[in-house]
Amino acid sequence: MNIVHSNAEGSDGRSFRPGLLAEIWAHLVDQLNISPECRAYIKAAIEAPSRLVRSTPRSMCGRYPSKKVGVTIGFESATLELPIILGLELDPDVFLYVDQPPPIKLTYRIGGRMRSYLQTPDFLVIMKSGIWLLEGKRLAAVEKRAIDDPELFVLQDGRWICPPAERAAQELGMSHVVRTEANFDALVLSNQLFLGEYLRADLDLPGYDDALAAITSILGCLARATIRSVLDKCGATVTLDHIYRAIGCGDVAIDWQACRIIDTEGCWLYRDTATLHAYLACALSKDRRQGPPVNLVRLAAQEQLRWDGQTWKILSVGASRAVIECEGRTQTMPLATLRDLAHGGQLEALDTAEADTGVESPVDAILRRASRTDLETANRRMEQIRPYLQACRANPKHRTLRRYVSDYKAAQRKHGNGFIGLLPRTAQAGNRKARLVKSVVQLALDVANEHLLNPDNVRLKIGWGFLADRCKELGLPTPSYPWFTKFVNRMPAYQVARARGGDKLAYALEPRVESTELALAMAPDRAWQRVHIDHTLIDLETIFSNSPEKAGRIWATLAIDHFSRRAVALSLSYEAPSYRSVMAVIRDCVRRWGRLPESLVLDGGKEFQCVWTQTLCARYHVTIIYRPAAKPRYGSQMERPFGTLNTNLIHVLKGNTQLRKNVRQMTNAVDPDNFAVWTFPELCDLLERYFFQIYDNLEHRELLMSPRACFETSVAQSGHRPMHVIPYDRNFILATCPSPRKGTARVQADGVKVNYLYYNAARLQAHFGKDVEVRYDPGNMGVAFAYIDREWVRLTCTRHAKTVWGLTEKELLEASTEWRRRRSAVEKTRLTDAALIKFLKEVNADQLMLLRRRQAAEERKRLMEANVYPADWEDWDEPAGTTRLGSSEVPAADICEPSVEAAKPSMKIETLEAY
């Protein structure tokens, strides 16, 4: 799998599946006979995308690793363009598709004037039948644009087209297609996403032949059966993975539009496609007269019937004819015709609730607007006057009861319902006419837009002062300050907060986006379908293991499964988030589970958008989805566990940094540095127990079960999917190791030079003078790897192995940066390995490097204890004489405590007098 590199410096181009381009060009030349302009356009599209995909405030972009074309395909919407990509990936008629081809020029008329601009299509698709330029658009956006620009989008034969784009595409010998949500069946798309890798023809599943024989044997006798019944009858021979594979490759048939495949008790398996079509035809050809009996349809006056989607009302019935009313029109129809329609099942009787035409009666409108208190009051009044509503009873003596009876009878004459006359009308009291003239209200709106709805954050009192001043100038009545306050508060809260405080401040008030059927179909419905990764700085100060000195705060990188909310990987480090943090958490995921998720949701951090993260995901066919910037709701599955971690655990520990939120009010007596007791290894063990034992088994209020139970249930229902298994071995560790910026290094007499250091091995000299691919482990700069003789060979830093063994890349970068700072401007342009090693020896015991080295030592100790390297990894023993920072090398003054501790005020409450 190859990844597309596209940036401001240039593009390395796309590297497609071997032999694909030759097949494409042969098809284009021999069968489609394309023009030179079309050839040039396709060549430019194949070389590199014309622009980078990016997220919008309400969409998530990403990259999909395509097995069909062998490169990653960018998309700008995970709920529209990603489904389009999945459809192209599974379509057998599609040879090749690429994202972001060169822009085309659209020209159309708007308002009597010609308008022209360049538009970049979403995809270029080369099919057996022709070449498409494909554009994905939201249906709501297309409908709105069609109203504003009638010539840009046109609805033709039930589908939307873009005539200007079609003309531009025809000039190149192509076709233009617009895809919206209406072009997708949400249920079919959900089933395709559920099957995933099972739909690929090249999938090899162990034991599939025997399982298929057992499945076809059962279906040969029954013609069709549910997935659950097949599993029960076949026993251990057949698993869900075998059934899903049989569905994916077409060995058995299902009705994709009937139900979800995950419903094993409702999803039917058919022997073949012909059997499926036969059952569907039988269902459509059932005799409808076997439905409701004819006597359920009463042909009498005031009865309401439904025929052909319309509601009929029978006004009167004679000996041979009936008068009916439909949509305000009255007509006469023979009774024989009505009886024939009833016998044919085309005429249905309607209940009173079902016969509602959608027009609300006045009585229903009054009752709907009444509050619970009003209804209780009306019920009480009804009980009081009930005895006086009888014709023979005299009027009540109390004036109030006489008024209730009068209101009841008046409402009965007016609305046909006396109860609504007993409803209190206190809400209608008062003068409801506007007392301010419209010019004053408009002036208040102008003042609010000019002075209040801007980042200046002018107070309401000052804004009212501007309004009062203008009213005096124009001779208009001045509204009161309370009125102006209510006027501003009635304005849309989101627009006001956004204008005064910006998008982030108003984000909590932003209207939620309604989920479409397509978006719901793309939502994860099983474990491992989507995993979120993010970082957080733990609110806790730590100390070193061998001394009480402050070590600093720790960064945690966590991976959470979207569907089950289960933590699947964890990595801790003193280093700020970088691509090394991402590689570490991915390593931990494979070490724990032996697999990676099908898609990763990441934020816009540089460590997530670096080439190493994208290359690793492309190699293991993991789709990358990027969250919109400053939109926490898109990552709520990730953000919520961080908040729960702080409130339930971190803020209970000694040395937590809650008080630093108000740093001006914090004193030295309560400084978290004075109470830090946790070390790096101890905190690692604590967080491991919390996420993988405690949090894993707590009931989740949204799932109504624990994350572990949800995860295990999902895996049992969706199959174990062995095609995603990744062995945690030497090859995987090498895949997570980055290479230098150039990617290769020239073999010299001293070996290859990587990051200012020389590495060598006995087999390397056979390739003297050649450029070889190299990689290094950011966790131990004492080793590197070179790809020679079709395998990766381990190299060691022979010149300075004792000094750099176990040195992390971060330490090396800090050392080189400090070296450049200390040297003169003349020496800044040249940095040799000898000079760097000399500097490292100089600062080995220096206070500048002491903190970083000791932090790295804490992390290294934890990694060695956790056995993060696989069993087949080469010997990692340190060279003899390697310099290490132990407790004996720490200056005594740094660890010695003062003989007399300064007196501190007591923080305990000794008496209860204050209460």
From TrEMBL:
Signal peptide interval: none
InterPro entries, per database record: Integrase_cat-core, RNaseH-like_sf, RNaseH_sf, Transposase-like_Mu_C
Domain Integrase catalytic: 520-715
Superkingdom assignment: Bacteria
Name the UniProt record assigns to this protein: Mu transposase C-terminal domain-containing protein
Taxon lineage: Bacteria, Pseudomonadati, Pseudomonadota, Betaproteobacteria, Burkholderiales
